[in-house]
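User: Fold this, then the next.

Assistant: Folding the first:
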Amino acid sequence: MRPMTPGPSLRSFPIAACLAATLGLATPSAAGTFALVVGNNHSLDAADKPLRFADDDAARYEELFKRFGAKTVLLAVLDVESQRLFPESAASARAPTRANLVSAIDALNREIEREGSDGRATTFVFVFVGHGSVSGGMGYVSLLDERFTRANLFRDVVSRSKATFNHVIIDACDSYFMVNSRGGGDERGPDHSARIAEYVLDEDLSRHPNTGVLLSTSKRQESHEWEGFQAGVFSHEVRSALLGAADVNEDGQVEYSEVAAFIQAANASLDDPRARTALFARAPALDLHRPVVDLSGGGRQFIALSGEVAGRFFLEDARGVRVGDFHKAIGNRLVLAPPPSPFYYLRGTDREAKLVFTADGTLRVSAGSFRSQSLAARGSLSEELDQRLFAVPYGRSFYDGFAAQMPGVPVRRPERPFPPPELALPPGVVSPLMSNPY
């Protein structure tokens, strides 16, 4: 990717209602990737309302990283509905306490050292979804039993990591105060990208050149979670990008600049600043092209949309979980690498298709794969998000315009497209949706 460095260029990223920090996500080799995912709906501050979907977001992140071949540890207390949707995650999850977090980091570091003993590159991913605030000028997020400060993040997570590269994602409502301790002011307020950059530099990220970051900020809980996604808005956008929807150069790797451009496009048509997700992105200084994820890791099931398919879509799995959203530009081929599911529904505003996996391989989706159908809106937080989020097509043209305005290194042209032709499945596995079971 291209690192997003502090300066005037960052002001092109609108900032809305939560903080998310992403320090190193995946390595091009699935083997050697380790992820610690923490989700907590509850805050240690009595004034904060509980979140609804932090546990779901954590489970979805874990599923996604497992899809890319990562060894994962989940710290979250899933509610009844989430346990029904994510039974495997619920069975292995532990409470998001400080002791469990430290224990998980120690255990993963031991595995990382063993994995990298032969010289292979390793990757550590840290994800947090939940509440955040500030005390005494120190920003923090809420674990179940105590506060986890930004100093803890760098001292206990980043500095201690034994991995070749690190990636951290923090999606925390009110994490704005991790970069601005004063508070108050207009909640529709200005872009705070410069302060986010200062936060990153204040913690001396330059001492960790093997670590990349993605930061999002917002000051309102309402735009942090959306019923339409059954998830946090920022986390849903990040997962959509990592699913493959951001892979503009079709090389099967999602770099930081692609995630940044994808989220910029997704939010470009939102008029209300409170509804936007703003992004600060910075790749590991040691490798500016280090991908956040490699789509070829782990699973062998892919969905490929041909260049003729264009428009706004969302992908829903057999459980009814909305896995990702995107607005595909015409002419661009798009390959998605979703978590395992016997079938998927690809839905637009006026058409939908049922995608059935009969074996590992690539499902080819063309314009003829769809059946016309009007899609009724599900529960929505606001008309603004329902109608304007993902309203701008994302493709090579948007990315090139975005990259031209940003410092850093844009993605390279791949030697061959992804996935390889030998993974193509025979025709007939993609069929129009004849009835809607939901």
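Now the next one, as you asked:
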Amino acid sequence: MAEAIGVKIGGANRLRWVKKKIVIMLLITLMGSGLVAGYLTSDIIDADPSARKAANKPRLVSRNSGLIAETLADLKDDKRKPKFDESAYKATYYPIVSPFTSNLNGSNSFAQLSISVATYYDGRVLDNMAEHETAIRSAILMSLAEQELATLSTQRGKQMLQQILTREINRVLKEKTGFGGVNNVYFTSFVVQ
């Protein structure tokens, strides 16, 4: 009888052991599924990095209807669309408050100027400008130090400097944030001595 009881107890223990094993396997499966789902929906992997990058790029701001879904690069690259028309978009200006002063290349002269930048994109470009203003100031001062007095004494020279500064600001912004977005630089004061 003891053997029969032992068999019954052993069978009951075995049945409990099998049930525990099934419950543990189900829990592991559910936890694994949850981990996989969390992993796939998190920022750990990116199924389409170009789509995420495009979603984070600043958007052009229309004069009439606010934000639009195209970037300036989209307009320039797509030959089917008309060329970029500044009058269709709202410009936002960002003044860099402190003036820039630098010696000029090849002379004892110096230039002091103040600038504002213009963008047709949303506020993210201005936020990026404010966040990286130190790096932008450095790039502007380095560019200004390369200029010569004779060049900056002409209107054409000043226009060329505007283009150089626009390019340098966008270079810094692209380096720091992945997107430039500055369309033009405007002088708010300009002194050469």
